[in-house]
Amino acid sequence: MHVAQPRQMIEWKHSRLSIAAQCRSVSIIRSSSYHALMTAIDAAFLAHPCYDSRQMARHRTRLGHAVGRRRVRRHHVPADGA
Fold first, then answer.
1. What CA–CA distance (Å, rounded) separates 27 from 24?
2. Phi-psi region of 67 (alpha: psi -120 to 50; beta: other; left: phi over 0)
3. CA nearest 26: which of 48, 3, 60, 43?
4. How far apart are CA 2 and CA 16, in angstroms?
5. Which of 29, 44, 53, 55 could form a disulfide with 73 if both were Cys (CB 3.0 to 4.6 A apart)?
6. Per-residue pLDDT of the chain (82 residues; tens, 9 = 90+)
7. Integer Cα distance of 3 and 28 in angstroms
């Protein structure tokens, strides 16, 4: 099985299983699932360049990927360094 397929099986808002438990069940490392999320955040920042970290966290949560503002901010550093 290709790595992308198990990544798609991860449910970010699962009511009972944590991300780590889901990754163990499909035999991938947890950082691999976060890599997919960060790729999605990069694409969203390209589509919405005026979003700050709070807006991007809300945007990703609306799309079903509960992600905190600090994770978004750690991942994305604006080009102007602000």
1. 5
2. beta
3. 3
4. 26
5. 53
6. 555 677 777 776 777 888 888 888 888 888 777 777 788 888 888 898 898 889 988 988 888 777 888 888 887 665 555 5
7. 8
Give me 57's structure tokens: 């966290």
Output the six-digit token pair for 68: 């905190």
SS3 content of the chain, % helix, strand, coil (to 5): 55, 0, 45
Residue type, 37: L
With tokens 């997919």, the residue in question is 36
Instruction: Confirm if 33 and 7 have CB atoms less than 8 A apart.
Output: yes
- Residue 39, token pair as written in the block: 């790729």
